[in-house]
Amino acid sequence: MRPYGWANTLDEAFALYPETSLILNAGDFVDSPDKESEYDAYFEPEILASYPTATAVGNHDVAVNYRNHFNEPNLSEYGMDEAGSDYYFTYGNVLYMVLNANNLNNEEHVQFLQETAAATADPVGKPPEAAAACVACHGTDGIGIIGQYPTLSGQYADYLERALHDYKRGNRKNEVMAGFVGTLTETDIAALAAYYSQQQPKLEVIPKRRFWFSSRD
Question: Which of 18, 39, 139, 156 gives 20 to 30 Å between its CA and that of 2?
């Protein structure tokens, strides 16, 4: 990494595209993956502090140093190597899916693309009016806003109908749910079950725990 050349590239790019709001970098931030001085050179231009940057792992970046410098959101377990894995993010109204092309397992990359596309899809259809009482805990898309609220998205419609009937009849005991379903009509229950059964449960990314070991003399 030559600091002057990199800084000059940024100056030229922003001169041509002054309305830029996001930097997309396709990788190879360094020549030697474990050489910290080259990362220092990459981050040296002050202009980088003013713009978000989306990164991808280049073949020169495959080392733990890369992930120590870049915080990639929604990392998946697909396309994983020492530096990172496939990940996605949204910026504005655009969904970006970034593949770690250093991992040559194409089946994993395809699986990541398919699952991410399904997980980030907009809700299917218009929520019924009765859903106004549901969204506070289960969200418009049927995903519980915190872990204690179950996910309704993608459940079978007949299961959801039975569950609502059980709450209404007292076969399932929950004071909060009993209060909500008490006002629901049969038409409301059928509409809610149909709507939430059509939604797609979102991809949940659970980061792997990383352990660091060191030895002392």
Answer: 18
